[in-house]
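Repro:
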Amino acid sequence: MKNYFILILIISMLQSCKDDCKNIQVPYAVKVPFTESILKNVSLNYKTSTLIDDRFPGIPPPELSSLLRFVERRPILFASITVSNISKHDGNFGFSVTWECIDQEIIGLSSAFIPAGMSKQIKIHQEIDHYDCKDQFSVKKFEIIAPTVQITEVSTKYREEIRYRLCNSCDEACVQADKVSKN
C-alpha cells in the first residue's frame, strides 16, 4: 500500500510538472572559424655560386707623336655570380661588389630579373683608370640584394559565438544549462 501511495505521488508530480513545462531558449557557445588576410613583406630566398672576379687590361691612350692611332679602351674589373631564385615569386635581384685597389675602393653594381625557380648569371664590368689596381686588387666584399615582395597570407582563426537552442523546462539537463548560462 505504501508503494502504491508513492507511485501515485510521483505520477501526480510528473503530471503537474507536465502542465508547467514550456520551451525555453538556452544559450550555448560555439567556436566559429573565420579567415583573416594579412599583408606581409617577404624577402625572396636565393642561392649563389662562387664569385668569379678578374681584371682585363685596356689599351692605353696613344701618344700624340705616335703615327699609329689606337682607340683608347680602359681596363675593366669584372665580377660574376650565378643567383638561383628558390622562392615562389619572381624578382629583380641586385649584385654589388667592392674591390680594394691599392689605396682606394671601387664599387660595381648590377641587377637582373630572375623568375621563380630559375637561375641567372649576373655580371659587373667596372671601368677603371689605366694605372689603377694593376695586379693589386681583391674583392673586399660582395652582396646579393634580394627583392622584397608583398604577399597576402590567409590564416584561419576562431571566435566564440553565442547561439540558442530550444529546450523543455521539465528536462533537468535543460534546467541546469539555463542556470549555468545565467551565472
